[in-house]
Structures are given as structure tokens and as C-alpha cells.
Amino acid sequence: MSNLLEVNGVSKKFGDFRALNEVSVSVPEGSIFGLLGPNGAGKTTLIRIVNQITMPDSGTVHLDGELLNPSHISAIGYLPEERGLYKSMKVGEQALYLAQLKGLSKAEAKKRLKYWFDRLEIGDWWNKKIEELSKGMAQKVQFVVTVLHDPKLLIFDEPFSGFDPINANLIKDEILRLRDNGATVIFSTHRMESVEELCDEIALINKSNKILDGKLVDIKRQYKINTFEVGIRTSDNNQLRQELESKFEVSNAKFKTLDDELKVNIKLDEAIKPNDLLNYLTSKGEVSHFVELIPSVNDIFIQTVKNN
Amino acid sequence: MNHLPLIIKREYLTKVRNKSFIIMTFLSPIIFMALIAFVAYLTQLNNDKVRVISVLDESELVYDVFKKTEQTTYNILHGLSLEEAQALVLETEGTGLLHIHELKDHTIDSQHITFYSEESPSISLISDIENKVEKRLTRLNLQANGVDVEMINNSKVNINIEQESFDGEKTSKMDRLIKLIFGGAAGYLLFMFIIIYGNMIMRSVIEEKTNRIIEVIISSVKPMQLMLGKIIGTSLAGITQVVIWLIFGSVLMTVATIVLGVDMAATPQQQAMQQAMENPEVNMQVQNIANAFYHLPLTNLVIAFILFFIGGYLFYSSLYAAIGAAVDNETDTQQFMMPIIMPLILAVYIGFFTVIEDPHGTVSTVFSFIPLTSPVVMLMRIPFGVPIWQQVLSLLILVATFIGTVWFASKIYRVGILMYGKKPSYRELMKWIKY
């Protein structure tokens, strides 16, 4: 799989403030790429560079193998975090205008808008003014405008803020569908659970530097802690716990069960296989719960940012 | 990609469809007409009132100069004492009493003449009376000293110097006046247009920021195109409004004249004009004015007016756009208004004080090339004859500065998005300008 977007050693300073420092990122074609980082890390600056709103001080950006140039504007769909629409314009007119700015003909834009408006069930808003819509409703229009010209690269900055769970899900499904239809998605957010759900690859930026990137699975594997959540029914919970503590590294578990079982997290050495542990446990009682503890993106995020 | 027509169209349509714009377009001429009608009505009211002035002329030398007019009736009193006359005027509620003492040898000072009234009389009434008495007494004095008044009148000469340039172009004093009026009107028109519609352009540039759509727009179009589109679109909306005002205004005027029977043209000044027209001396003047008009380089003037008006307007608009680009909201713009209006006022002053004195002097010439003042100053100079190359050069400078300012404004605009309230350093600004 080739890379649609290649960011190579990009640096950007605003006055004395260094917003990006030698950041390199590769976004594979057809993937959903999570751009993560705490507030003020430089994510938005990077996104703006890709959108040619600002130029990097040094470094290069290639889209589809070509050095970034103005003709790429119509190949990118961008939903910024700071977003709005012309308040006094009607929904349909405005969407047509913005689509035409992205290079669509009026007829084509109209056809596609009709399709999308029907799809998101907002067809009867065409003649409403934006100021008559709620924030969530306006966001839906913005989403349609972002994807309408069928861009190769979609960039969403906090796409779910302002949506209720139902609409957030709707948008999430649309993003996945766009990916399946061949679009590449860059996705910047603080909401780790949506990263977990959607992203194939991530890059973590902190204090202007990229500190982590790669496939989400690989990263998780890298952060694997070999710990298992165990729930077991025995006659004497305390005795078993002491027994386990003598053999393994044991800590308190956070998960919940229905009955009053012994709940612990057990960390294994490299030498011991999970099966060995399971066998041992079944000999002690009835195992109700046995799960490998995989670090969440949230944990990885917090851990890496803190260690950095 | 060239999105300029698209942007112009959107700017134009949003402006023109805006409710307050529509309301003002149709309300302004109505208000304006109503005001004129009201003033005309008031003037007529005033005219209907006839003043009654009693005259007590003790030596009976002057009274016959007071002839009854439409507005004033003179009541000549004979053989009454001052007290009796005053009592009479009070009783009959006359406007006032003019008392002229017994005169000896026609020598007189102002203490000899007194005007008594309940309310202080208008200046025009007093000067009218003074004029009449003065004329009569002067005449009487001249006669008393044995001077032939007819001879004096016949010896009077009226001089009106003919002016002609070496290549045979004739001018006159009246020419100068007409030229001045022409240039002044052009300058004033530009001034009004800029003040009314400049603000609109500025607000239009801020629109994307207040609606927070700026990042989406700026990732699709070049700021330069956006700025140009905004300036042109808003200007077209402004022109539409002015044209509607003119058409609607003249229709209203006609309707008002027919329906209300109020002749709006019949203001006192115009009546006076009409009366004056019948006077042969004034007729000569009118002839002069017509000649002066004929002497103007009309073709040049009309073309130059259109070009400099558009150029000047666009240039000032781009300054307003630059302000809009630099600030985040409208409240921050107030302080920038003065620096824009100042050069415009300066231009008008230079026009009136320098150009009229010496249309081709250094000051006039220099200021007719500086873009801030050239639209007004050059327009005022052209009636006096300016070589075409100068006009073209001045216009080129104007247009180049306009494009430069728009370009600069678009730089500021782009930097403005990224700064998050931080003040950009000059080095940073320079860098941005280069990009």
C-alpha cells in the first residue's frame, strides 16, 4: 500500500514559538489516520500546512507523489475545528457556493448535494438559513460540504464535537464508508475511544515533535504489558489470592462481575505462557473471566506524553 | 483556479438580498423626498404670511420708495406723532414701525432711523429697508450738490476681461468658477461614495471571521481573489443602490409634484433665479456660464471622471478591506476610520485652495500623482487642461497602488488567521509578505 500523503521533516515557527519541529508523517492510501496530541502540540499547524493555508519554514509535503501545489486544493476536503457557515445564507445556496469553490460545476454540485442531503435526511433544509439551524444541524451541512467534491484526502479536526451520540454515530459510519470507497482520512481528535474504533494508523505529536507513530495494532503490541484480568470462584478468596501473590505479580482489578468472585490482574513473566496460568487457575476453581489486558489508546497517550 | 466571478456573484447577491439593504434602498428616497416636500411646504406657509410695515416719514422724502410686494404691505402714515404711530401699530398688530426723523440737508446718521417691532425683524427685511433708504438719500444728496445723476449712471463701465491662451483657447472668469464647481462636485461625490460604501466593504471582509468560515474559505481560494471579489461585489451592490435611488427618487418627485401639487422646484432661490433670468444683465451671465461649459474639455472630463472615480473608489475600498483584514471584529475598526478620511479631506482642500490658485503649480501637480489625493486633485485639474500623459500616468499609479493594497490586505488576512491574538513580529510580517 503506497502513501497518499508524505510529510517530510516539516518545521514551522511563529515568531519565537516553534509549532512544529522536524515532523515526518506518512499516511497510507485508503487508511484512517489518527493525528493525536495534547492541546497546542502542533496538530492544527500541521493540518494547515497540508491545506496550504500556511507554508512550512522547511521540509516538504507530497500528496499522491507530487509536491504540494495549488491544484491539490480540490483533492482535499477539510473540516476545521474552528468552523462555521455564512449565517445569513440559505443552506442550499451556501453548499452550492462552497462546492463550486472546490471546483465542481453547478449542475454536478446540485446533483451530489441532493444525494447527500437525502442520505443524511436533511433535504428539507435547502431553503433554510443557517441561523435557523441548531449547531448540530449546521455541523451536518458542514460535513456534507467537506466530502461533497469527493476528495482523495479528507481531514477532520474534531469532527464529532457538537454532535449528539446518534448523529456522531451516523457521521462515524459515513467516514468508514468513505474510507471503504477509497478515500484516505486524517482524523485529529482528543476523543480516544473514537480513535480506537476508527483508526488504522496513528501519529502522536507532543510539544511540536512527533513522538510515536505506526499501525495501531503494532503500537498496542509494543505497549503490551502481559497482564491478564482474572475472575475466579473459589471457597476462600483470600487464600487463593495469597497463593497467587506468591507465584505472580498480582494487582487489584478494575472490571466488574455479577457474583462475588476473586478479581485480580496478573502479570506474567516472559517464561510463563497464558495457557499455563489458565491451567493453574482451572485447577483452583471455576474461572469466570480471563482476558488479556490490552493498553487503550488513552493509556498509551497519557503514558507517552507523561514520559516525554 | 479562478473563482473571482463566483465570489463577486455571492457578495453581490448577499448584499442586495439583505433586508436592511432593501429597506434602505427604498426608504432613503422616500425620506429624502418627504423632507424636501416638508421644507417646500414650510416655505410656502411662510410666504403666505403678509407683513404689514407702517412707515412714519417726518420729512416725507423717502416714503414713496416703499412699494407693496407679494409679501410686504407698507402702510404710510402721515401727520402722526411717534407715540400715536406706535400705539396704532400695536393696535392693528402690524409687523413693525419704521420711523424716519425730520431730515435737515439730507445729512443723516443711523440714529435718525429706527425700526420698532414686537419681535426682532429678519435680517433680510432690515437690509432691504436700509438699501431702499440709502439709494434714495444718496440720490437726493447728489442732486442737492448739483450732480447730474443720469450722467453718473451713464458713465459707469462694466468690465469683464476676455482671457485667451496663446493657442487661441478662450476662457473667462466664469470658466474658472465652472471648473471649480465641476472638480468640487466630482471630489464631493467620490467622498460620499467612499464614506457610504467603504464601511460596507470592511464589514464584508470581517464576515468570514465572525462566521468562522474563514478556514474553509481560505483552504479553497486565494485571499487575493477573495479580497478582490469582495471589493467588486460590494461596489456593484453600491452602484445598484445609487441607480435605484436616482430612478426611484425622480419617479417619486414626479408623483409628488402631480399628486400633492407641491412644486418642489419652486423653492425661493429658484423663484429668484427665474426672476433674475428676465433681467438682461443676468441673461448675459447665463450666456457666460453656457460658454464656460462649452469651453470645458468635456470628452476628456467625462472619461477622466469615470476612470478616476472608479480608480479612486477602488483604491480607498482596498484600504478599508485592509483594515477589515487586520481586525477580528467591527468594534476594533473605529480607530482606523480617521486615517482613511484625512487624506480625502486633504485632497478636497488642496483642490479648493491650491488648484484654483495655480492649477499647474508644483503642489497641484505632485498631489495629482499621489494615489491618496490624485482622484480628487486630478479631477479638479483636468478642466484647466492637463496633458493626457499626466492623466494616464496618474491613473496607472492609482491602479497599481490599488492592486498593491489588495495584495497587501490579503497577506494581512492570511497572517491574521494564524496568529491567535498574538501580535506578529515585523520580521514575521515581512516573511509572510514574501510568501
Automatic annotation (TrEMBL), chain A:
GO molecular function, one term: ATP hydrolysis activity
Keyword Flavoprotein appears in the UniProt entry: no
Keywords: ATP-binding, Nodulation, Nucleotide-binding, Transport
Ranges for domain ABC transporter: 5-232
Leader sequence segment: none
Pfam family, one: DrrA1-3_C
SMART domains attached to this UniProt entry: AAA
UniProt xrefs under CDD domains: ABC_putative_ATPase
Translocase as UniProt keyword: no
Protein family membership: Belongs to the ABC transporter superfamily.
Protein name: ATP-binding cassette domain-containing protein
Naturally occurring in which organism (per UniProt): Pseudotamlana haliotis
TrEMBL record, chain B:
Main localization (coarse): membrane
Molecular function via GO: ABC-type transporter activity
Membrane-crossing segments per the record: 20-42, 180-202, 242-266, 293-316, 336-356, 363-382, 388-409
Keyword terms: Cell membrane, Membrane, Transmembrane, Transmembrane helix
Coiled-coil residue windows: none
Top-level division of the source organism's lineage: Bacteria
InterPro entries per UniProt: ABC-2_transporter_component (IPR051449), ABC2_TM (IPR013525)
GO CC term, one of those recorded: plasma membrane
Pfam family, one: ABC2_membrane_3
Membrane topology (UniProt): Multi-pass membrane protein
Places the protein is found: Cell membrane
Domain (ABC-2 type transporter transmembrane) ranges: 19-410
Gene3D superfamilies, per database record: Periplasmic binding protein-like II
Record carries keyword Cell membrane: yes
Protein name: ABC transporter permease
